[in-house]
Design goal:
The chain is mostly helical. Helix content is about 70%, strand content about 0%. It contains 12 helices and no strands. It has helices at about 1-35, 50-60, 70-90, 105-125, 130-160, 165-175, 180, 185-195, 210, 220-245, 260-280, 285-315. Helix 3 runs antiparallel to helix 4 (about 105-125) and helix 5 packs across helix 6. The longest helix is centred in the N-terminal third of the chain and has 32 residues, at about 1-35. The relative contact order is 0.14. InterPro entries: NADH_UbQ_OxRdtase_su1/FPO (IPR001694). NDH-1 is composed of 14 different subunits. Subunits NuoA, H, J, K, L, M, N constitute the membrane sector of the complex. This is NADH-quinone oxidoreductase subunit H. Keywords: Cell membrane, Membrane, NAD, Quinone, Translocase, Transmembrane, Transmembrane helix, Ubiquinone.
Amino acid sequence: MLEFVLRVVGVLVAFLVAPLVVGQAEHKVMAHMQSRLGPMYAGGFHGWAQLVADGVKFVQKESVTPAAADKRVFEWAPVVAILPYMAALAAIPIAPGIVGADLDAGLFFVLAVMSIGVLGSLMAGWASGNKYSLLGGLRVAAQLMSYELPFVLSAASVAVAAGTLSFTGIVEQWSPLWLLWQLPGLVVFFIAGLAELQRPPFDMPVADSEVIFGPYTEYTGLRFAMFLLAEYAGIVVLAALTTVLFLGGWSGPGPDSIGWIWALLKIAIVSLVVIWVRVAFPRLRADQLQKLAWQGLVPVALIQLALTGAGVIVFF
């Protein structure tokens, strides 16, 4: 019982702390990339408490429900958006034994719950009673349908190579050769993951110049903050998945007892790449977004899966 409580508390702490660290890093890293200061005053040293200040601001704001909204669906949408990422984070190991729940079918579980999180955006767009929110929700649906397939196919390639759906088993089977063998799958997985999170340059559903703020237009206060927290939590989950599936998880020089350091370092690097992509690339048009998915990522993911299957049969 005590071990269960410790694992739950550990997952909650990681879920609350890691997205805030990524959010603060995005503030400062984007500022340096764009040759500006960024937040500098909250908390004193380089504005380290800016996200805490933002949280206090959101708490003080009123959470308004539009008169034309479907009240129950509108209020539950932020919860549906954020909880799946907590469940996903609980199943991703950082090191041997450092995991909320070590599942035999961990990859299947995480991919399943991550697909649920997008329903929060769909619910928000449909229930807001706002035509711009509805348009943003429909864009979320179209984007999800396009990028879910390459996302799953590239992850399936790793499962085929390792011969297991267990994250621990995948890391144990990983070797540096995978950096070449599974490189196309890594690229597809990362790009599709950005699209799943609606991160730039795949932020068409929340294009502020066209649909105000997409499905989140009518949200204020803590409900809006929950959508932002879900985005940063999604970055952490995507970085952790990329690390475990393609980068060897806690594999690195030295004993497994320091493996968690390597895992966290890899997660931090992948998160920085996510931030860099936001700064470096302009938003894709709707037709470009769909073309990239169906004519680019899906064929590459299918070829990668076929080659992985052939490689397993021939060499293993």
